[in-house]
Amino acid sequence: MKEKFLGVDVSSYTYNQLKKNIISDIEQNKQSFIVAINPEKILQAQKNVILLRLLNQATYQIPDGVGVLLASKIYGGNISERVTGIDMLLTLCEQASTYGKSIFLYGAQPGVAEKAKENLLRKYPNLNIVGVMDGYVDDHEYIKKQINAAKPDILCVGLGSPRQENWIVDNMKNLDVRIFQGVGGSFDVLSG
Length: 192
Ligand code: UDP
Fold this sequence. Notes:
The protein is α/β, with parallel strands linked by helices and 192 residues long. Helix content is 48%, strand content 20%. The strands form 2 sheets. The chain has a 6-stranded parallel sheet with strand order 4-3-8-7-5-6, with helices on both faces. The mean pLDDT is 96. The site of uridine-5'-diphosphate (UDP) has 14 residues, from helix 9.
């Protein structure tokens, strides 16, 4: 279920397929990593082999950008639906709310993820948000300890790209978390 654009993998799953996969990954105790791919990241990866490797290491590379859809169409691929980082985050919240899974928000300036949490709870009153942490805490051991104590099924990491992808790959083995998503500036948007 992947297509390659200038060496970068992109998943051809729709929201509906991703929804099912994510819940099934959690149920099977599988660790998965979601990264949003847009043409800008594909171009950056041409000059940065470490970034290219990092993006291809993800479990689901969601097609976040009409450019990716267009390229798929031109090359006879199957990517039929744009899946944006923020909509994927909302999909995770909806699924977590429906299936009783927990979520942790990590990233953005102090207070922002807290405000995003309030707004998400207004939209999904049953959502179990087990923790919030800003993205400017320097003590990495403390961050890991807080996340592991909260044991979220889903961790949304909003540190900007490629910082968040680096952070996820470096830390996922040591975290008691199933689904990781790099969400960029989504907490800023959701806090408004
Ligand atoms: N950020 C952070 N810690 C850092 C650097 C950035 O938490 O050390 C946050 C920043 O506050 C913002 C997000 O990362 O909320 C980056 O947003 P941007 O829209 O630039 O990311 P992109 O989606 O373009 O990767």
